[in-house]
Structure prediction request, 475 residues.
Amino acid sequence: MAETLDTADRTDPSARREALAGLALDKGAVFAPKRRSRFGAGRLMLLAIVVVGIAAWLWRSASAAPAVQVGTVLKRSPIVDAEITTANGYVRARTRASLASKTQGRLAKVLVDEGDLVTAGQLLAVVEHDEADAGLVAAQARIAAAQREVAVADAAIDEALAAQASAKALLAEREAGRDAAQAELAQANAGFRRIEDLVTREIRSEADLDSAREARDVAQAQVRRADAAVATAQKDIARADAARATAQYQREASAARVAIEEAERQRIEVQRAQSFITAPFAGVVLRREAEPGEVVSPANTGASGSKTAVVTLADFATLEVEVDVYERDIARISAGAPCRVVLDSRTDRRLEASVRLVRPTADRTRSTVQVYVAFAAVPEFARPEMVARVTFYRPQTAVLTDDELIVPGAAVTSRGGQDGVFVVAGQTARFRALRLGEARSGDRLVLDGLVAGESVVLSPADSLNDGDAIAVSGR
Prediction:
């Protein structure tokens, strides 16, 4: 009715009036069903025809798509036949140390941080050493005092040696005087005997004999005085020897005290040096275990509430992989055998390596043997404790050969004189020209044109055209 009004409005006023009159209701009339206009029924019929046509086209298209079997493009290593076994493990540093203080004390400062590169002998941390400093000063003072005692003893020795030399010179002089007195005594005795003989023969008088006796007695007295002087000089020498011996003893005691104090000073210096933690080798700081203000102590003391390790250091040049290999495979693995390592952090990099050591004992709980694998060249991205996958190969195997792309030989066909395959793209097959290599046990080596994981039509590839619809029946 709205369409009738709209049409009448666009024609003339009389038609509009007639249309309005037609809108009047006949009160006595009984409502009868409305008749559908020709125009609405035509539209519905047209829509039904279109839907039926599309459905028929889809049914014909689906029923016309051929069922095909597909395969997958694979990436395979050419040395797979040389593979012995594969094991998982972890990267570790062969040269690694947790550095602790050798003396207990409060940590004064830490001079490095995690990730820092350090050289051998570089200072890493310092423990408070005030007590050692005070002990060192006291030891130096005691050494100085003992050295002064040694100097005094040396002076006493020199004085005793001088007195000894003087006494020896005096003794020589007095021995010479005694020798002269003894010579005079001998001469006096000879004169006395000669005069006594002359007196007996009455050639000389008694007075001459008395004079000779007196001269002999004088000579004897001089000899006695000379002997006493010699004895005195000998006593002086003995006293000088005793003084020198005493001074020598004092010097030796003082020198021993110097040595003891020097040893004590060295002990304190060593103790003080232990307060300075240095790098035993060049490497990288893995962990900073303690902070300034914390109490640190040697690992063997077990002091409660104290830290032991201050810094953990590793030499990245000694990184290697530690893996557990099952006992059933270990007989085929020996030192020097080639390996290929792939780290989880860089699965795109394959690293050449070799077996460094097969441990001579097994783990009874897991039935494995630890094997250490050394990198041919340690990669810059390797870190301790990284997860690694190690593949072991037979000797003289080149472990870094590139992986190969393999396509099933049944998928290869030709179009326009060009070898290629039909690649599955949704529900259609698209022909792709390839650069192929040699055949490998029914497969073909793909040099260019495909990537691993793509699906290709196996059959019936020869009857397809580019863009044909397909129905995948199996893989």
About this structure: The domain at 131-273 is CATH 1.10.287.620 (Helix Hairpins). DSSP finds six helices and 25 strands in the chain.
